[in-house]
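Methods, example record. To illustrate the input and output format used throughout this study, we show the complete record for Binding-protein-dependent transport systems inner membrane component. The sequence lines were provided to the predictor; the line carrying structure tokens was produced by it.
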Amino acid sequence: MSDSLNKAELNHFLAQQASKSQKKHLNHKFTRWFKALLIPLIFLTACEFLVRNGYIDAYLLPAPSSLWQSFLDLAHSDLFAHIYISTWRVLFGFIIGSGLGLIFAIWVGLSKEAEAYLEPTFSAIKSIPSLAWIPLLLLWLGIDEGSKITLIAIGAFFPTYTNTVAAIHNVDRKLIEVGKVYRLNAFQRIISIILPAASPGILTGLRNSLSLSWMFMIAAELIAATQGIGYLLSDGRETSRPDIVIIAIILLALLGKITDTLMKLIENWFLRWRDTLQK
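The corresponding predicted structure is encoded as:
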């Protein structure tokens, strides 16, 4: 009888602890969301007050409450077509640019000869501002998709290249020596040792490349485009519609955050072995 009472008390105690832990987790999550949303809510409230009371002219900054109707008007026209075309350009340019960045970075990171030939040129090209490429790309490729994709690929190339080269150079040489002891050939050492050891730096470069792809996409669409979020920004400026400009900026922030979150999830999945080592 006493044993059954002790078990019941133990189960009751464990249930209480689990309930407390769950409540603590929910409170922590609520507090984190509250802190994250506090500044934007204060800013939006201040903008609403200042515009509604005439302190700021509506043609310069529309009231946040009026943006919803503008968004609905855009949604009923061609807003989602603009979002689709911009996202497609970013992803396509990112895949091309970061893919080439990985190939050249692995080559340069593993070959002193390749580094001597390629690194000075890439370092010089990396310093060229994005807007400087646009006139040349328009002359070579016209205003079609080719020039836009190429500009985005250029933006995606260098963060991946730079971070991957640095990550490969920082791989512990002892690991490579272990591979030699086990008589792994060069290709096996690259696949089994060097790339896994350098993967945190490589994935960081890919995330940076994706962020820069969005920036270069805007640069491309602001100059020569008839569709896309960058075109919405340009069209809003030319037609004196700050509401369209602000909606386009908000869309860019949301899409950038979504894609960065997806890349973070992919990064966590590839680096799940770190959690195993920490345990």
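Annotations derived from this record:
The domain at 64-271 is CATH 1.10.3720.10 (MetI-like fold).
The chain has a mean pLDDT of 84.
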